[in-house]
TrEMBL record:
TPR repeats lie at residues 146-179. InterPro entries: TPR-like_helical_dom_sf, TPR_rpt. PANTHER family: CELL DIVISION CYCLE 16,23,27 (PTHR12558), CELL DIVISION CYCLE PROTEIN 27 HOMOLOG (PTHR12558:SF13). SUPFAM superfamilies: TPR-like. It holds the Pfam family TPR_16. Keywords: Membrane, TPR repeat, Transmembrane, Transmembrane helix. This is Tetratricopeptide (TPR) repeat protein. The chain crosses the membrane at residues 235-253, 259-278, 299-317, 323-340. It comes from Phytomonospora endophytica. It comes from the Bacteria.
Length: 347
């Protein structure tokens, strides 16, 4: 009887989002009755929520053997394997859960989730097609489940079916407007669709609902680089000042000397890049992503990079011709960045 009480307490705590306490009660139930499959299921769920996926795998294996519904064990096993990066095994576990429980929206949801992981690793379009069918079946079986519509929206996004993806995401947030996972997935979709302002808004909603989502906070810092006014303003000021500096020097008795050109170019570079780098400098991982991701997708940061190249040329070469082209080019880059930012905000 005591193990039944502990198991029920563990389930209630899991529903309340308190996995650490749930783990304690589930472990008590398992210790009292090692043959209690339901207690093992609660323990596997709690361990997965706590990030202890190797231990969750062991508990899930016990569920498959002991519980009257082994599909539940395969679902927990799939979740743990996905988080451990063992994607092929996770896909097999998800398929087995669908075979054992074909009329459950949850099993089809996990299958769709596993196919997305397989596709993102190796662009497996046939597998993703299987996932789209599973997601559609999940929606059919669970028309009131926000997660089912969320996973359907993600898969439509992978196929670039943007209109269908937005319909699915809108239904997901209508069913559960307080689901941080849904807002994050919706934001990721808009981010990859280059709708930066909308993506930033949805990332912010996700972060307000779950302040501990580190990947959401990182993405917001990336978006801030090319949706905020600061970098564009600084680039424009640098372009105007440097162009005036060069024009003034044309009428001076002496041409621009090399040292002055280096100093002015260095100050302009610092003004252009100080705010973007500061926003992304919390971890070295952010800076690596800045180089490969932000520059690749943002016209604002491409303009910053173009201005940087112009300033380097103007500062590095000792004669005046580079300055004649380099400094006005900074102003052109600033205008490009301003237009790009306006376009991003209106998207």
């Amino acid at each position: 009887m005591s193990e039944d009480i502990a198991e029920r307490r563990a389930d209630a705590l899991l529903d309340a989002g308190r996995p650490a306490e749930a783990r304690v009660h589930a472990a008590q139930a398992v210790a009292s009755d090692p043959g209690n499959g339901g207690a093992w299921l609660s323990l596997a769920h709690a361990l997965n929520e706590l990030g202890e996926h190797e231990e969750a795998l062991t508990a899930a294996e016990r569920v498959i053997v002991l519980w009257h519904d082994p599909a539940a064990g395969h679902l927990q096993r799939c979740d743990a394997l996905l988080r451990l990066g063992r994607i092929d095994e996770a896909l097999d576990a998800a398929r087995e859960s669908v075979r054992l429980r074909p009329n459950s929206w949850r099993t089809h949801f996990e299958l769709a989730r596993a196919t997305i992981a397989v596709h993102r690793r190796a662009e497996a379009w046939p597998v993703l097609g299987e996932g789209r069918a599973a997601a559609a079946e999940s929606v059919r079986l669970g028309p009131e489940e926000s997660d089912a519509f969320r996973i359907l929206g993600v898969i439509h996004g992978e196929f670039k079916d943007r209109a269908d993806a937005r319909v699915a995401f809108e239904e997901a947030v209508r069913l559960d407007p307080n689901a941080a996972n849904t807002w994050h997935a919706y934001a990721e979709f808009e981010y990859h669709a280059d709708r930066d302002r909308v993506g930033a808004e949805y990332y912010s909603r996700s972060l307000r609902l779950d302040p501990h989502r580190r990947n959401t906070a990182e993405r917001l810092r990336e978006l801030a680089v090319f949706t905020s006014w600061g970098p564009v303003r600084n680039l424009g000021i640098a372009g105007v000042v440097l162009t005036l500096f060069w024009l003034t020097s044309l009428f001076a008795a002496d041409p621009i000397d090399h040292v002055s050109r280096v100093v002015f170019s260095g100050v302009a570079l610092a003004a252009c890049w100080f705010q973007p780098v500061l926003r992304l400098s919390r971890t070295s991982r952010d800076l690596r992503r800045f180089g490969w991701n932000v520059l690749r997708r943002s016209w604002v940061t491409r303009a910053l990079a173009g201005a940087t190249a112009a300033l380097v040329v103007a500062a590095a070469l000792p004669w005046d011709v580079p300055a004649a082209f380099g400094y006005p080019l900074v102003l052109v880059c600033a205008a490009t960045a301003l237009l790009a930012r306006k376009r991003a905000l209106l998207a």
